[in-house]
Design brief:
It is a single chain. This protein has two domains: 1-74, no CATH class; 80-234, no CATH class. The chain contains 13 helices and no strands. It is mainly alpha-helical and 234 residues long. It starts with a helix and ends in a 10-residue tail after the last helix. The protein has helices spanning 3-13, 16-24, 36-46, 51-59, 63-72, 80-89, 93-106, 110-117, 123-138, 147-160, 166-182, 187-197, 214-224. Helix 7 (93-106) crosses helix 9 (123-138), helix 10 (147-160) runs parallel beside helix 12 (187-197) and helix 11 packs parallel to helix 13.
């Protein structure tokens, strides 16, 4: 399937109702409005991993296409420069914090990029970095993040979370949840950090979305005893 054909297929799957929902969530105007479930069906035609198509779709600038690119990207063929370009171009959080972070996590550059991105002054890049760190904790990829590093990151979050931009704040909170859920040895530390931080306020726009309460969410995860994931893409 060519990029042109894939874009036409995505357009056919889109709807005005879904576009309106996504626009409330900050999606770009260039959008078809495709449900993720329908994208999963389209993957049967494009192949689960298709590097050339993923690159072409992301380059299109269409919000649905950029998200879909993250689902089919071949992380082993992505260069660090490719991932950096994706992170810089992903202005919608559904792309930066999900598609880009997913592929970065499963790439050979996961820890390196996460560390670099969280230092970026551009909020969408920094948020992609924190999301990548969270995904690394959930991913069955060995112990990329040691306890000392995770503790340093939690200390940083406690110090900075109320001063950073909204999406960075949201993904920092998500990192605390990931630590608590996927590193049982640090669950109490993560909950204690979250309790000291207090309520995390993020402007979610004209949506019903809420910021998860980290201690509560961690407790729910621990009841399920989540296992490491073979893939973080969903």
């Amino acid at each position: 399937m060519t990029t042109k054909e894939a874009l036409a297929a995505l357009e056919a799957l889109g709807s005005e109702q879904t576009r309106k929902i996504f626009w409330k969530h900050g999606a770009p105007k260039s959008l078809y409005g495709v449900k993720v479930g329908d994208m999963k069906q389209l993957m049967k035609q494009t192949g689960k991993k298709n590097h050339e198509l993923a690159m072409g779709l992301f380059k299109s600038g269409n919000g649905d296409a950029m998200y879909f690119a993250g689902l089919i990207a071949d992380e082993q063929q992505m260069t660090k420069a490719d991932l950096q370009q994706w992170a810089e171009q992903a202005k919608w959080y559904m792309v930066s914090e999900y598609s880009v972070a997913w592929v970065a996590t499963e790439s050979p550059f996961a820890k390196e990029l996460a560390a670099e991105w969280i230092e970026d002054e551009r909020p969408h890049v920094a948020a992609a970095g924190w999301s990548t760190y969270s995904n690394i904790l959930a991913y069955d990829k060995g112990d990329l993040l040691d306890e000392k590093l995770v503790k340093r990151l939690m200390q940083r979050i406690e110090k900075e979370i109320h001063e950073v931009p909204d999406r960075v704040r949201y993904t920092m909170n998500g990192f605390l949840i990931a630590v608590g859920g996927y590193m049982p040895e640090l669950s109490e530390d993560a909950k204690a950090t979250a309790q000291r931080i207090g309520k995390v306020v993020v402007n979610m726009g004209d949506t019903a979305c809420k910021v998860p309460d980290a201690p509560t969410y961690i407790d729910k995860m621990l009841i399920r005893a989540p296992k490491k994931k073979k893939t973080v893409r969903c």
